[in-house]
Structure formats: C-alpha cells, structure tokens
Amino acid sequence: MIIQAIIGTVFLGAAYNMNYFSAIRVFIYDSEDIQSKLQVRPEESIVSKFQVINKAADLIDFLELDPALALREKYSSIGLPFQDVIRSVFDRREVIELVLYVKCKMENQTFPSDTKLKSDWQTRPQKYVGTHFVKSMTTGGNLVISYEITPSKPEYRSDVRNIIASHIGNSGIIDENLMQKLENFKKALDSKAYINLKTYSTGIGFHIPPRNIEEGFKFAHEFPQLLKNTGKGKGVVLEIELLDLHTVEPNYSEYKINPDLTPVLKEAYAKYDDILGFKVKT
Hints:
9 strands, alpha+beta
C-alpha cells in the first residue's frame, strides 16, 4: 500500500505501524545492505488541480488521502502535511472553500528483495515492532492553498458560487488558460466576499505565501519549476510504500483492511467537521 508520508523521519527497510500511522525505529532489513543495493529512478509526474469543496469528505478524495489517516489528523494532530487545511474549522453552510493542490513526484528509492533481512526483531512481540515495513519512498514536493471565501452578505452566497463557476469552474486543472481568466474573476468577485488563505508547501524552502486568489493560482502554476530549482530538485519524502510484515515473518499477523469502512470513515470525517463548524458558529 502507498500512503502520504507523515512529517518526521522515515527510513527504507524500517518498521511502520499502520494502527497509529507511525514510523518505528526498528530495522527489518540491514541498513548498510540497503544503501549498497539502493535503486533510484526518476519519477517525474505532476498533479495540478483545483476544486470547490462542497462537503468535508470531498477534501479526502481531492487530496488523495487515506480516510483513516485524515480522520485521525482531524481528531488529534499526528503530523500530516497540510494539517492546517485538514484541521481547519468553519461552517460550510456559510463559507465556500476553494482548494488548489499541486503534487510533483521527482524520484523513487527502493531496494531489491535479496537485501539482507535482519533477525533480531523477529523474536519480539509484534506490538513492539509494527505491522509493515517501508519498501520504497517517493520524493518531491506538494502545495496546498485553501481559500475560505465568506460572502460579505448572506444573500451573496449563491452569487459568489456562480462567479466561481462561470469564471474558473468548480474544478479543473491549473494552466495558462486558467491564469488568463483570473482578472475578470477578481473584478466579478469585487467586494462580495472576504477571503482567508491557508498555504502549505514542501520541497521549496521558505517562500512568501500568496495574499490573494490571483497570487495563489500564480504560485501554484509556478510551483513545479520552483521545486526543480530548489537544492538538488528532489524535494522531500511525499509518499511511502508499505509491505506487510507478515510477508517476511509468517508468525506475525497479517494487517487486513476492510474496504467497507472507507465510506464510513469519510462520513465520520464529514460529521465531525460539521460538529466542529457548528460549535464555532455558536
């Protein structure tokens, strides 16, 4: 399985506990042998899109998150990148959220199956080791910009939605054509709404965050090139591939995922978001 990397240090061949989404400092494979056999390949791909988030569960799909991971971050911060966006609280009946998302994959690192397997961990109870080990890591950078758009008057809410839909669309890709539409979009929006911005980026070092919608779209459009021009252009760890420890130690229990839980977790995330938003309003 492939999941979003949590903020913090993760090592190839080390254990991981999916029950808590946490890296464990127990090496399943010999770290020196991993380095001697390290396989590195370029993996250049770009996702660059935007969407109006009508309900909280839409954010999970849009940001390509594991629902259990998103819910855990919403309930108690565990260090997910762009956690400020995930944990943001407002009444979605009154505030329109427009989110930009750019993800650039640059490089993949892994190791072959004949790498030396360590044995010291195999005598430990599984609860002290984990459920998986890190088989590969993909590096790059990502950018999330959330615009919380609050109509200046309640009766403007449908107008603001229509302005977004007619000028840039409720969802789409971030490209040159979209950039050309922003001037008319800004004029149409005028004083009908107040905008609160939240920005999160990785792989490009410090940059002054955008101050308005136009700057945000420009920043998102330029982000892939900014990433390539920063340091060695490899970015940070974005995703990790996990393999079940049961595959290398049959005495360990297999980690099983119930696919029927996915919609339940999304609904729980949305309900919890609604409750928090209602509390803020009251």
